[in-house]
Amino acid sequence: MLTFIPTPIGNPQDITIRALRTFEKVTLFLCEDTRETKRLLRILEERFDFTYPSDEVEFLSFHEHNGTERLKEIASRLEQEEVAYVSDAGMPVISDPGQLLVAYCQENEIPYDVLPGGTAVTTAYAASGFKEGEFTFCAFLPQKGSQRTSALIAMMNSTTNVVLYEAPHRIEKLISEIVNIDEEREVFFSKELSKKFQNYYRGSAKSILEQFENSSINSKGEWVVVIAGKKEKANALYVDDLLVLDLQPKVKAKLLAKLTDKSVKEWYAELIAQ
């Protein structure tokens, strides 16, 4: 039996009683990071009615780099033992390699269960105050280049609110990129959810950038960002949005070619002629 167990996104007190009781039955832990899982279990032992696993219990890493190979090693144990998959924080399978395990269980008719628990996606969206009940979760943007620009433009042109994660060293870059596309767009930035230095920031993209530039926002910590959906119909404005971006002509030409009937060569010639 494989159980996916959510862990607190910050505050250890958010662990559930059901998760604690399941931890005590597990003989094999599959962890995004074994060190983080062991650290959490020690904290739970110190603060709650929980017994740390015995020496016979095994902890194995299972992450994006080794998931496929690790699955081959432990596949037979999924039916024979009580196995838990644990992310570093939050809901397993959401933006982590746990989906490999879900798919394997489904294909091989192995029983599995997913315990309910906290996730940064819904926590941040609830805190945003945006009234629409519908949103799109996009996890992390590509880190750089035209792929990042193209992905962000697509999000900004969506009429549905978008939720994404961003690393602390790229958070100011992200708000600058949003401002370049639409400085008046309503955004919500949440930092270190459920932790001591949790903070919420809501306003126009331009006003949030000004707070960053005035050093009134400390970028350290995990970030979840909500971008309000575009009010107008999106498709007719794709090209205009790209044309105003401060990008190299070659990069801009490639992006424009994806959205129009013109070739990269045609767009490049037009851009350098301006």
TrEMBL record:
Function in brief: Catalyzes the 2'-O-methylation of the ribose of cytidine 1402 (C1402) in 16S rRNA.
InterPro entries named in the record: 4pyrrol_Mease (IPR000878), 4pyrrol_Methylase_sf (IPR035996), 4pyrrole_Mease_sub1 (IPR014777), 4pyrrole_Mease_sub2 (IPR014776), rRNA_ssu_MeTfrase_I (IPR008189), SAM_MeTrfase_RsmI_CS (IPR018063)
Subcellular location field: Cytoplasm
PANTHER family (alphabetical): RIBOSOMAL RNA SMALL SUBUNIT METHYLTRANSFERASE I
Annotated Gene3D superfamilies: Cobalt-precorrin-4 Transmethylase, Domain 1 (3.40.1010.10), Methyltransferase, Cobalt-precorrin-4 Transmethylase, Domain 2 (3.30.950.10)
Enzyme Commission identifier(s): 2.1.1.198
CDD domains reported for this sequence: RsmI (cd11648)
Protein name: Ribosomal RNA small subunit methyltransferase I
Single GO cellular component term: cytoplasm
Catalytic activity, as annotated: cytidine(1402) in 16S rRNA + S-adenosyl-L-methionine = 2'-O-methylcytidine(1402) in 16S rRNA + S-adenosyl-L-homocysteine + H(+)
Family: Belongs to the methyltransferase superfamily. RsmI family.
GO molecular function, one term: rRNA (cytosine-2'-O-)-methyltransferase activity
Class of this enzyme: transferase
Lineage: Bacteria, Pseudomonadati, Campylobacterota, Epsilonproteobacteria, Campylobacterales
Residue ranges of domain Tetrapyrrole methylase in the record: 1-207
